[in-house]
Design brief:
With 301 residues, this protein is mainly alpha-helical. It has a single domain, classed as ABC transporter involved in vitamin B12 uptake, BtuC, CATH 1.10.3470. The chain has a two-stranded antiparallel sheet with strand order 1-2. A hairpin with a 4-residue loop joins strand 1 and strand 2. The protein is globular, with a radius of gyration of 20 Å.
């Protein structure tokens, strides 16, 4: 007996929602690796941190300042969380990562892995490991929409649309604007770019901050859907690295397209053959690396 088409389409839509988060997270990784050659293992921790900034701002911020009615709602968190986490990323790059650029890339990976463990351990001490629901979905995003083949939550549609807009705007800025040209040139020949009066170290710092801000934005968007917990970043980071590898390390468009596609493949697998849902992305990664080691959108050395 064949599977009902509506069930497959519904699962693909849910997979697209997950794929939008994969795309946004892998985009941040691709920006950092493609422009700075840093394997940012702390990316999952920054994703988790963005979700916690949204949760703490809504539930505890007013009490901290003695004004219980003053809260950081969801819309404010969409702006403030990426800024706060981005500034933390700038601080980490300036004080720690900057000292490691002259060494092997492995040292940067180990440092960011240590940062991830510190952040994860800190929140594990104070918050429920199983996660805390985020109660601040705006009233305008509550409810469902009839898509014909399923009823889909309005908020999930918003999360998909917001992720896609941010992803393609980032791609456009990096690939089609003068700022993006400076960034790419600064990583390939920093001495030449600096000779034209461009502050390359500052540009690198801001790029790292922007990359982790993308992770924080994904965390805020994910907070109303998934429980906010200390392990939420650790649970997704390996999958996101697989997405980046499949798309091609450092490829901006590869990360976006592959993240969306693999999210849908994962979603459809849950209804076609559920036992393989948690491993299908890694199976695809093995096949792609055997056929094209640089990834689908990567450049052969």
């Amino acid at each position: 007996m064949g599977l009902p088409l509506n069930a497959v389409l519904a699962q693909a839509m849910l997979g697209l929602n997950q794929g939008a988060f994969y795309a946004l997270l892998s985009l941040g990784l691709a920006v950092i690796f493609g422009l700075l050659n840093i394997i940012n293992f702390a990316h999952g921790a920054f994703y988790m941190l963005g979700a916690f900034v949204a949760l703490i701002g809504l539930t505890q911020f007013g009490g901290w300042i003695g004004e219980p009615e003053l809260q950081i709602n969801f819309w404010a968190a969409l702006v403030l969380a990426p800024l706060i986490v981005g500034l933390l990323g700038v601080l980490i790059e300036r004080t720690m990562l900057q000292r490691l650029y002259k060494f092997d890339h492995l040292y940067g990976l180990l440092l960011t892995f240590g940062v991830a463990l510190v952040l994860q351990g800190y929140f594990t001490n104070y918050y429920n490991v199983n996660g805390t629901p985020y109660p601040g979905i705006p009233a305008s995003l509550k409810g469902i929409v009839n898509l014909g083949f399923m009823y889909f939550p309005k908020y999930r549609l918003f999360a998909i649309a917001a992720s896609l807009v941010v992803c393609f705007l980032t791609w456009y800025v990096i690939e089609r604007t003068k700022i993006g040209a400076y960034l790419r040139a600064g990583t390939e020949n920093p001495n030449l770019v600096q000779a034209f009066g461009i502050n390359v170290p500052l540009m690198i710092t801001l790029t790292y901050g922007f990359g982790v801000a993308l992770a924080a934005l994904a965390g805020v968007l994910a907070a109303p859907i998934y429980s906010v917990g200390p392990l939420m970043g650790a649970n997704v980071i390996i999958t996101v690295f697989a997405v980046v590898v499949i798309g091609g390390m450092g490829s901006i468009m590869g990360s976006i397209v592959t993240g969306l596609a693999l999210g849908m493949i994962e979603g459809i697998t849950k209804v076609v053959y559920p036992p393989a849902a948690n491993t299908v992305i890694f199976f695809v990664m093995v096949i792609v690396l055997l056929v094209r080691p640089a990834g689908l959108f990567g450049r052969e050395q």
